[in-house]
Amino acid sequence: MKHLALAAVLGLAAILPAQAQTVVRHLHITSIPAEVELMQSIADEFMAANPDIKVELPFLENEAFKAKLTTLLQSADAPDVFHSWGGGVFYEQAKAGFLRPVEDVLTQEAKDNQGQAGVSAFTAPDGHIYGVARDVSEVVLWYNKALFEQAGVDPASMQTWEGFLAGVQTFKDAGITPIAIGAKDKWPAHFWWSKLVVRLAGKDGFEAAARGEGDGFEGEDFVKAGQYFLELADLEPWQQGFLAASYGDASGLFGDGKAAMHLMGDWDYGAMKDNSANKAGIPDDQLGILPFPTIEGGKGDPTDTLGGLGGILFSKNASDAAVKWVEFFNSVEQQKKYAEAAYYIPIAKGAADVMTNPFKQQIARNIGGAHWHALFFDQALGPNVGGVVNDVSAELAGNSISAEEAAELIKEAVDDSL
Amino acid sequence: MTTLSNTANAGASVAPRRWRYVERKSLLPLLLFLPPALILFSLFVVLPMVDAATFSFFNWNGYGPITDFVGLENYADVLTHRNFGTAVRNSLIVVAVSLLIQLPLAMWCAIALAERSVSINVMRTLFFLPFMLAEVAAGLIWKFVYDGNYGLLPAVGSAIGVDMPFVLGDKFWVIPAIMLVITWKYFGFHMMIFIAGLQSIPNEVIEAARLDGVKRWQIVRHIKIPMIRSAIVISVFFAITGALQLFDLIIPLSNGGPSHSSHTIVTFLYQFGILRMKLGFGGAVSVLLFIACVIVALAYRRILFRVEHN
Fold it and tell me: Contact, B273 vs B289, CB < 8 A?
């Protein structure tokens, strides 16, 4: 294989000088057609202003992207810039030398633009900046107001864990699926475990466990998170066949008004419409966001949020043209377009101000006021531990593992990778 | 990894015969015609195999240099992995289903369809059609058939008043569901091999038997099946190695789920070796699978050899 790659590189090198334009390949994971069009129009605008640069926008679907990126980055086909969720995977890529440090190339404006949180999210432990932050996201408990009314559940009664379980039971009794979940993909299930951990262990507890200190993930709070999860799973709150349902299936089910709640990132606002049968999803006036139930004695701060801090990384063969493109793409002016269309919440300072979508506004406020914005655990903990967290979460949802065993498996994976 | 061990096994089992060939004939054609194949084979089969075997002794996540030597730790991790047993069990179930259900079914269809006529040709093509479909396409088609909300199976179920389970989300039903697809997909291939064999049986032999008053079943049992022995030998070999390497049907159907209950050895390798970025672990699985395939190939040859001598 190495020989072939070498041959391919030599072949490319022979062709390249013939091209006048610098090609920038930006690998993205956007699947909503209108959002891709927006991205293309921004690229077109950039290319019109910079005729010597050609921006290409190859696409990989979410799961395929995660599976293929490792190989891709080490091949002749490596993109110049690509999507990243930060965290453990990013650190590995940086450590292995597959990324280009850009702190000297990036303009001060582009750095300030992202704020302190953004810059530090894409600074590796070695102190170099390898990318820019693009967006923030939060996992929230979406709910369908019409179904709440129909079952006679008061959303306010669900703010505590006991109240939440009682509400779920009321839905069950009314013959309505309480919660949609795409457990085949596993990461949707891991949001439940993560939210419980955020409530129970809090920032300090989680970070200590991730470092393998003390009892690590076998500690009391983490076993408790499993137990609470099982309490919920005991009520069989999920749709039928949830273990075979992908994220898209669950999102469509919720969008079709066939489940009362869906614990999902803010992107589901658009995806839920796109995945629904009539492409319209739940109308805005019937859609709501519930705060995740609080748990008595939990060590987490009530303002803590769980979500992502997405960005764009530069691979080691990225040219200065690639940096220029990303700066243009991530500028306030361009990012406002994303904010207006409510695809995501841009991190670029001021871009989010133009958001008119009340849900996105609320989520931006949540994140802004959060004591701790926990990054997606399966990304923060790296692919191996993250994979185990996803596994046990799906099993907890299916009630096929004990809380103690789940905690033990995660602890084992952490010890294994330390 | 899937195709290479197959080719490698086949290579291993015919090697001794090739040596005899060299002694008899001149070396010139060998030197002329062997290098292209040999280079491709080394580049895409031997080299990756050696690579994978090397990885298996290291702790490596796919990024950067391979330096962290861990000895046999990866092998120990594989053998004690909580899902490895399930994967091995499932692969063995696939082998069993292939040999005990798929091949007899293929034989039955072949005997029924070995005559030459237009309608029979149509039937034959229909049975062979699934084999021509790409594995991933076939997997997706059946995923839709099995889908608990919109699928064909629950629709049929509700028409006859039976509440069908979500088969692909059910730890028990997912295995029979996959076995059904495998049988549907591959029996046509074996049927074609058998038909080719059956058609090469001289008609006189069958006619002579008929004139002697031999019954239909006896003709099948004592004439047809023994006379297509070599076709059966090939089929069994393909069935076993194919079953051990099953991968691309599983991924779109169940992706190894629910709760990793429907992994085969290769999907196990992909999930825990590639996706979890533990390439050393994955390398260890592939080496174990390779050894299993070699053992099967050698044992199979051994058994056949013995039978031939009896």
Answer: no
Same domain for A383 and A255, yes or no, is yes
Per-state percent for chain A, helix, strand, coil, to nearest 5: 55, 15, 30
**In chain A, % of residues over pLDDT 70:** 95
Compute the C-alpha angle A79/A82/A88, nearest 5°: 120
Residue A1 with chain B: CB contacts under 8 Å: 47-48, 51
Q: State yes or no: cis peptide before B176, omega within 30 of 0.
A: no
Q: For residue B272, which residues of chain A lie inside 8 Å, CB to CB?
A: 387
What is the DSSP annotation of A232-294? HHHT--BPTTGGG--HHHHHHHHHTT-EEEEEEETTHHHHHHHHSTTS--S-GGGEEEEPPPB
Domain shared by A186 and A272, yes or no = yes
Query: For the residues A82-100, what does the mean pLDDT come to?
Result: 90
- Inter-residue contact A190 to A389 (CB < 8 Å): yes
- Please name the member of A4, A383, A400 whose beta carbon is closest to the beta carbon of B43: A4
**Are A400 and B257 an interchain contact pair (Cβ–Cβ within 8 Å)?**
no
A169 and A201 co-located in one domain: yes
Same structural domain, A188 and A269: yes
- Which pLDDT does position B4 carry in this prediction? 41
A280, A247: one domain: yes
- Nearest residue on chain B to A240, alpha-carbon basis: B166
CB B189 within 8 A of CB B102: no
- Mark whether A296 and A333 lie in a shared domain: no
Give residue-wise pLDDT tens across range A243-260: 989 899 999 999 999 999
Q: What is the rounded CA–CA span in Å between residue B123 and residue B290?
A: 38
* Nearest CB partner across the interface for B258, out of A253, A387, A398: A398
The verdict on A156 and A142 lying in the same domain is yes
Query: The domain that contains A329 carries what CATH number?
Result: 3.40.190.10
Cβ partners under 8 Å of residue A387, min gap 6: A378, A413, B272, B275, B276
Domain that holds residue A333: 19-136+307-368
pTM score, whole prediction: 0.80
Task: Give the Cα separation of B266 and B289 in Å (integer).
Answer: 8
Contact check, Cβ <8 Å, B275/A4:
no
> How does B58-68 read in b/e, with b if 16+ C-beta sit within 10 Å?
bbbbbbeeeee
Contact A71/A1 with Cβ under 8 angstroms?
A: no
B43 neighbourhood in chain A, CB within 8 Å: 3-4
Number of domains in chain A: 2
Name chain B contacts of A249, Cβ cutoff 8 Å. Answer: 149
Nearest residue of B to residue A385 by CA position? B276
pLDDT of residue A63: 79
Task: For residues A171 and A281, state if they share a domain.
Answer: yes
B43 closest CB neighbour out of A3, A66, A384: A3
Rounded CA gap, B298 and A20, in Å?
A: 58
Residues of chain B with pLDDT under 50: 1-14
Q: How far apart are CA B203 and CA A193, in angstroms?
A: 69
